[in-house]
Design a protein that fits this description.
The complex is a heterodimer of chains A (113) and B (112). Chain A has 113 residues and is mainly β. In chain A, 0% of the residues lie in helices and 57% in strands. Chain A is built from no helices and eleven strands. Chain B has 112 residues and is mainly β. The chains are: A mainly beta (113), B mainly beta (112). The interface between A and B is medium-sized, with 28 and 32 residues.
């Protein structure tokens, strides 16, 4: 049973526009939600996170929103750039267990010039 | 700091062979984890460790063994490789006070 789901395998956006990547979760025993970015043949790199007690966190062009009642989070990238083209993974950290991340399936973002 | 390092980068095995995927970190992180990435499945947790001498199972532990004798190293052992273990394997580490994990570059394993 997939506890963290990314239902869109791919997303295509024009350069300069907003990219919105979505993620749903089913388990309430997560204390942090994270977004990772992955290029081919490289390991995932951390992008941004949000505590389960917050509803928004912003870092430059990247903003993550958390809707606890809907068990939904989203990553907004504004403005999108061609270098943002990558696979984005949503992940949830099991409460107080630093070694346990549960990942979604990933969404491949393509930003076209 | 080299961060998280993994060896080898690529490996081809025959069914039934054994091998060890190496993972090391030089950040003195207490938490270390192994994940596998398969198409359409995201990354799935195989085993993790909260410190030297302490390991636990993740989502997909069958067919894999781990041990943690030092803080720096966390090897993943395949005792009898199967084609279903063809995947890309990532090692990660973190420390208390950080909510993100730091990933290595991965090992691409093919089992024929």
């Amino acid at each position: 049973d997939q506890q963290v789901k990314q239902n869109s395998p791919s997303l295509s956006v024009q350069e300069g526009r907003i990219s919105i990547l979505n993620c749903d979760y089913t388990n309430s025993m997560f204390d942090y939600f994270l977004w990772y970015k992955k290029y081919p043949a490289e390991g995932p790199t951390f992008l941004i996170s949000i505590s389960s007690i917050k509803d928004k966190n912003e870092d430059g062009r990247f903003t993550v929103f958390l809707n606890k009642s809907a068990k939904h989070l989203s990553l907004h990238i504004v403005p999108s750039q061609p270098g943002d083209s990558a696979v984005y993974f949503c992940a949830a950290r099991v409460y107080n267990q630093g070694g346990k991340l549960i990942f979604g399936q990933g969404t491949e973002l393509s930003v076209k010039p | 700091n080299a961060g998280v390092t993994q060896t080898p980068k690529f490996q081809v095995l025959k069914t039934g062979q054994s091998m060890t995927l190496q993972c090391a970190q030089d950040m003195n992180h207490e938490y270390m984890s192994w994940y596998r990435q398969d198409p359409g499945m995201g990354l799935r947790l195989i085993h993790y460790s909260v410190g030297a001498g302490i390991t636990d199972q993740g989502e997909v532990p069958n067919g894999y063994n781990v041990s943690r004798s030092t803080t720096e190293d966390f090897p993943l052992r395949l005792l009898s490789a199967a084609p279903s273990q063809t995947s890309v394997y990532f090692c990660a580490s973190t420390t208390s006070g950080r909510n993100e994990q730091f990933f290595g570059p991965g090992t691409r394993l093919t089992v024929l």
